[in-house]
Amino acid sequence: MKTKLSKDDAINKKLSACTFSNRRFSLIITALLALLILSTVLCIILGPVHVEPRFTWRILLHQILGDRSSLEVDWDKSQFIIVWLIRYPRVLLGLVVGAGLAVVGTGLQALTRNQLADPHLLGISSGASVTAVLSILFGVFSAFGQYGLSLSAFIGALGTMVLVYFIAQENGRVITTRLVLGGVALSMTLGGVTNLIVTMGGSEAGIRSALQWMLGSLSSASWEQLPIPAIVMLLGTAALFITYRSLNGILMGDDVAVSMGINVVRYRKFLLITTSVITGVLVAVSGAIGFIGLMVPHVSRMIVGADNRKVIPVSMLIGAIFTIWMDLLARTVAAPSEFPIGVLTSIVGGPFFIWMLRKKKRSAAGRG
To answer: Which of 84, 153, 266, 346 could join 132 in a cystine, given CB atoms 3.0 to 4.6 angstroms apart?
Structure first.
């Protein structure tokens, strides 16, 4: 037992070598929370249609407290619709999706020990795209009404996760290399299937809707859509945070993880299922939004170091902030038209990816 504790201490010391002190970490979290609140308010106020700032909190209080708020209703119906029925659920869904994808990226980069991993690596988003496009163009799951699209995307995502899991298995163990290569192969195959489906059928309006979903969008956000993604994201994030020691262990290699007393096989299964479920639920309501899970964990590690106890909450906050600002740009840059948010995250993510590779190259050259 003593040996195990000393190894744990050595590992935590190594992970914390480049990490800020707890006091500075608290300051970073406080600053990010303040920025998150400010960003949320601004993203509700700003948009193609001007909204007076006071309406954002007055309408919120009136909806929560009702007649007890003793607030004069000095807004008209159109302002109420814009603020309460459109912008509030859209911004809140953006917070949930951004936070969730960033946390999933953190988990997948530990699972695969690949810093270029993100929620799309395992083909989960591509699987969701196939069934979502079938729903949009041919009415699959239309019997479920407004939930048909989300349900079809979720089923596609989970089905792909199960397939990747079986591809990656060998003698009851999940092989990391197979996981990555199988995910990439499935992603490419399912992407081709999706393009074939779009090419084959549906009306022009249906094809346009399918392409918009494939590129990611929060335009269909509503209060009814919000609870399930929010609950799944919070529970999944809590599960990863509670097991941060195991996450740190497998990030540093199987031998280190075993020396810490971690059941590597079981934890990998847990991590794969958790990240896949979160991704499936989020992709079902937002479409395929790329690069958030790749970029945000790297930014977080640059700020607070490699310890996932600190990386997870920082990634969660940065992912939420980044996503709602990207969505604000998506709905204002070409107003009254709207860009898919996935297009903007890719425009930002591509250069970031190149910069990251060059930074790694310079770092390796410096060590040499």
So the answer is: 153
Least confident of 30-44, 109-123, 305-319, 330-344: 109-123
CA–CA gap between residue 38 and residue 287 (Å, rounded)? 26
CA angle 82, 74, 81 (to 5 degrees): 15
Q: How far apart are the first and last CA of the chain?
A: 38
In a domain, 40, yes or no: no
pLDDT in tens, 20-59: 578 899 999 999 999 999 999 999 999 888 888 888 888 8
Element (H, E) at 169: strand 169-170
Domain membership flag for residue 254: yes
Q: In whole angstroms, give the CA distance from residue 278 to residue 330.
A: 24
Check: CB of residue 210 under 8 Å from CB of residue 137: yes
The answer to whether residue 61 sits within a structural domain is no
Q: Which domain, by its residues, includes 191?
A: 91-362
User: Residue 260 belongs to a domain with what CATH number?
Assistant: 1.10.3470.10
| 302/311 Cα distance (integer angstroms) | 9
Residue type, 227: P
Residues 6 or more apart whose CB falls under 8 angstroms from that of 261 comprise 4
H/E stretch holding 295: helix 292-304
- Position 26 in a domain: no
- Cα separation, 177 vs 188, in Å, equals 17
The DSSP symbol for 87 reads: I
Q: For the segment 166-214, what is each residue's pLDDT rounded down to a tens digit? A: 888 887 777 888 888 888 999 999 999 998 998 887 678 888 888 888 8
